[in-house]
Amino acid sequence: MTAVEHGRAGAALAWRRAALVGLGFGAGALHLAAVGVLLMLHQRWIVIDTLSLGQATVLLLAGGAGAMAARDADARLARGALAGLCATLPLALLSLAMDAVTLQPIFIVLTPDLQAMLTLGMPPLLAAPALLLVGVAAGLLGAALRAIPALSRALLPGAIAVLIAGVFQELIQLMLQQYEGPVGEARDFVYTWEGLTQQGAVTVFVVVTLIAQLAGRAARGRVAAMEPARRRQIWAGIALAAIVILPAAAGSYIGQVLMLVGLYILMGIGLNLEVGLAGLLDLGFVAFFAVGAYSTALLTADAPNALMHLSYWAAMPISVLLAVCVGVLFGLPVLGVRGDYLAVATMGLGEIVRVIVLSDFGAPLLGGAQGVLHIPKPQIGSYTLSSPVALFYLTLVAAAIAAFIAWRLENSRLGRAWMALRDDEDVAQALGINLVRSKLLAYGLGAAFAGLAGSIFATMLSSVYPSSFQLLISINVLALIIVGGMGSLPGVVLGSVVLIGLPELLREFGEYRYLFYGAVLVVMMRLRPEGLWPSDVRQRELHAGDETAALDAGADLLPARE
Amino acid sequence: MAKTLLSVCNVGMRFGGLVALSDVSFDVQEGSIHSVIGPNGAGKTTVFNCITQNLRPSSGEVWFGDERIDGLKPDRVAALGISRTYQNIRLFRNISAIENLLVGMHLHLRSSWWGAVLNTPFTRADERAAHEQALELLQFVGLRGRGDMLARNLAYGEQRRLEIGRALATRPRLLLLDEPTAGMNPRETSEMMAFVERVRARYAITLLLIEHQMRVVMSMSDRVTVLDHGTKIAEGKPAEVQRDPAVIAAYLGTAAAAHAVPA
Amino acid sequence: MSGAQLARSQPRISVGRVSPVDIVLWSLRILVLFVVFAGTIGAIVKDRYTAAQWFDFVMFGLTIGAIYAQIALGYTMVYGVLRLINFAHGDIVMCGAFAGYFVASPLDRSGFLTDHPVIGMAAILAVAVATSTGIALLTERIAYRPFRRVAGSGPLIAAIGVSFFLEQTFRGMFGSSVKSYPAPAWQRSTFEVWGFNVPRIDVLVIGLAIVFMAGLYLIVQRTKMGTAMRAVAEDAEAAALMGIDVNKVVVFTFVLGGAMAGIAGVFYAFVYKQVYFFMGFTPGIKAFGAAVLGGIGSIPGAMIGGVFLGLVESVGPSLFLDGLGIPAPYQLRDLIAFTLLIMVLIFRPNGIFGERMAKQRA
């Protein structure tokens, strides 16, 4: 083959790749439409009467496809356009198909509403090409943003700001609600109660773009000059300040959301000891949470099946202690079970706990499906921690203590023993590490944090039911430590905020939460197994990898995955 | 006469129907370098596993000093003073070099987990001493300044030495080295041998060595045990073993025979 | 005197040879054995159930066991070839059940299923098999293939992700409500053998399961592809060196497993007369237990393990728990299955038939 033929074959391959990328995004869009996410997102305006979140999603998918397709140097825009076209093709075909046959009896969300969203009320034969054109335009824009950095610098900050202001409009408005005067007027100018007004969107865009242009140039140099570690510290500081101050400023709704985030942070820290440090993949973690919650309930509740009527502060340590006991009991039989089998065995144990709680066998004590009701709130002196905000601060204190303990443990003799265990159990044992003790400590301490979370959870809800303690909780916690980064404390916080906090803020999203968790687990494992905020060790590993590369070029350059 | 430190008595090991070891006995004298040699698949590593109790012997007894150790858990055996390396290096790959050594010191650190949480003065002193010792050991194994590297990113020879360092960190009386020169060229091999001599000189410990390369063994061993097909076929001083017809027969046809005869 | 002789002359001392953990594990064994024996004796003494009832329990156990066996085959084959617990396999079963539902329900409404049961059932099974196989192949391609050769818990976590993704996708597309599976009259009818009433559906499920599993066994043992599959299960690297296309073998494995899952899904739905998005989870986990019970990687083992699990789960509540006077024992059926699963994982991870291979990797 000549060089020209090579070039031609390469170009053909690149075009095919662009089309495939587009079709991949298109399949994603079709999936979102078929499961009802698209329609759900369409119910939420970003800019009133102009752009819904659903429409924005389609645009983002097409634009993303365009940007991904535009990775080679030549014909970027055209390939972007092709990818955008392919990304909207499945939806266009869907709208035609929906016009031809009624699919709703089988696919319950393929409703006229969805049809209306896809066609914008146009006749289908016109709407499908229109949708494809929009796709081409979005793909072009995506490719252009990637190809021309100046363009993306000019457009992206404003666009992202509009998106955030639109998506979180409820939250922002709740916070601004209390203000009158100029702030109130500005609020009314930018927002209605459904989303951004058109003039509001333009204003936000212009203001943010201006700020980004003026302040950005000065700040960018300074941020870039900063060490990554320092940058992280600053981010962590900002996040921490936001978490501490926000609920007090923003009221009970945010308080409730953050309280849930806090509970998951607490559980995440616990599971992180087991999975992240000691390498014990535990899917029955929810059992410890349940023990904490039920113990608190049975020790304090004003219910017929309660055992005692202690104060919350007396019940909490007992609950934690019971959770530790269950953790050790739970860990004992599965001490010798290794690897993936351990995950299944612990899940089986968790399911056994659930079956017993639900059955008539356990009902006299645990209340069966009715659960335990009337759990009192904690009191400090004469002050009752009844508001979500007050309970949030309780959770925050608990999480802070847990994080502190976990941090100290990580760098201790026990923490090193756990990491050795995670890497090679046999060798760890041959070096004198007592497997039984180390593993049981991991289960016990992990269970302590989950038990504490359960205890707070019980008093938050004032009642406990078996349905609150499903396997899904274990999966939630596992997902958040994987997204954050296994073995990483800041990762747990980040994971909780992203996986628990965000879906809670977009309330209608809740129904589809597990769909995204599933996708997130696969995608994270495939693209970024070290998590969004890897632990120091992982961090160092990447860093050390660079160093070795410089030192001896013959060595394994990429930090291979274990 | 020197005291017997380790004695392996009539040890047998079966996996299902497969007999890996049968009726193997030998004694290791305190302060000596004792080697176990034999062709591939002779059961050398299985002997090691039976000593450290990574495998529980199917029959026979293993004594360490005055204690019978077969049937103990490997961590108990380590606490009694036996430590080992592995044929295919088994470092904790995802933690740093110095942490590998600190894990090796696990047995000799006294701080408890709650002490670590409260960061008591005792824990701090314990940790500080441990870090100092680890740095010293790091220097001894020639990895000074590489302590923060992840073990997996070290060069091959460095990993070998770090693994020996980790075994030394447990302060063993008996160190088992499983083919320390595997995969090394002649120059690296002699460096490693010199290193092993330095280990013995400095720590005054007993060494039990598995080797495949006869040359290595002959020059440094006090005593040699030869295994073939899971049974002991010869034992004695290197020079005696070399002349043993059974040994020559076992090695004949293998690459090692070339080394065995002339040396 | 040599050390070896010295050693022999010393008294045997045993330090720490019985650990507390051993005690716990032994008490666990004894507890389970106690429940089994005391429960059985109690049940015999109480004599609460008639012979016909016991027959029903056994019949149901065999039926559900045949279904578990078919699901377990998928686990065991994939594990053999990829060393991966295909956590989403139970959901592949669910996909088949749903696909069958959308064929069965119009066929039932139009009366076709009553008039032409054979063609009707064939159509239902065909669609279910096609759907399950297709989805199994998609998950392999998208979610599992990138993880070939990745050790550690990554692949399992991805498989858990796939499981949730499939469940929630079906929930989104078809709703979260429980749909009742059609049950034409011939399915509900029974016939009499030696005075016992035998449900027709049970015979159908058991009979077809035997036929399909025998077919699968022949495919794996006799065809070229099956031989390649066994070679890969034995040693993937060596097989690749011998010129076997491992990718093809993996695809083939997922096709077989997916097909079995589709059939099992339809049967499971017919037996329990309902479909919903989470239905695959429990039988999936139980079938995995059955596969381990029979020795994971072993095809006959998975079949026997499945039937055994089905029998224990069906007869167990009345035999073991009722005998001990536990209220509403049928609620604890899953408890028995999960206990069996955990006991197997703890005590016999190589299966009850598997040879006890020591961990000889060191």
Short description:
Chain B has about 260 residues and is of the alpha/beta class. Chain B is built from 11 helices and 10 strands.
Structural write-up:
The complex is a heterotrimer of chains A (562), B (263) and C (362). Chain A is an all-alpha fold. Chain A has helices at 3-35, 37-42, 53-69, 76-100, 112-119, 124-147, 149-167, 169-176, 181-190, 198-225, 228-250, 252-277, 286-300, 312-331, 339-358, 363-366, 388-410, 413-423, 425-430, 435-461, 471-484, 489-505, 513-527, 536-551, and strands at 45-47, 51-52, 379-380, 383-384. Chain A is built from 24 helices and four strands. In chain A, the strands form two sheets. A two-stranded antiparallel sheet of chain A has the order 1-2. The longest helix of chain A has 33 residues, at 3-35. Chain B has a six-stranded mixed sheet, sandwiched between helices. The relative contact order of chain B is 0.17. Chain C is mainly alpha-helical and 362 residues long. Chain C has a domain at 67-280. Chain C is built from 15 helices and four strands. Chain C has helices at 3-9, 20-46, 51-82, 89-109, 112-115, 117-144, 154-174, 185-188, 200-222, 224-234, 236-241, 246-272, 281-293, 299-321, 333-347; strands spanning 179-180, 190-193, 196-199, 274-275. In chain C, strands 1-4 form a two-stranded antiparallel ribbon. Chain C has a two-stranded antiparallel sheet with strand order 2-3.
Largest sheet of chain B: 6 strands, mixed
Number of strands of chain B: 10
Question: Biggest interface and which pair forms it?
Answer: A-C, 55 and 57 residues
What is the SS-derived class of chain C?
mainly alpha
Biggest beta sheet summary of chain C: 2 strands, antiparallel
Give the helix level of chain C as a range of percent. Answer: over 70%
Strand order of the largest sheet of chain C: 1-4
Overall 3D form of chain B:
globular
Our measurement of the CA-to-CA distance between the termini of chain C, rounded to an integer number of angstroms, reads 34 Å
H and E order of chain B: EEEHEEHEHHHHEHEHEEHHH
Number of helices of chain C: 15
Q: How large a portion of the residues of chain C is in β-strands, by DSSP E?
A: under 5%
Note the beta-strand portion of chain B: 15-25%
**Global Rg of chain C:** 23 Å
User: How are the strands of the biggest sheet of chain B laid out side by side?
Assistant: 6-7-8-3-9-10
Low-confidence stretches of chain B: none
Order of helices and strands of chain C: HHHHHHHEHEEHHHHEHHH
Mean pLDDT of chain B: 86
- The helical percent of chain B reads 40-55%
- Terminal-residue CA separation of chain B: 29 Å
How would you describe the oligomerization state of the chains in this entry? heterotrimer
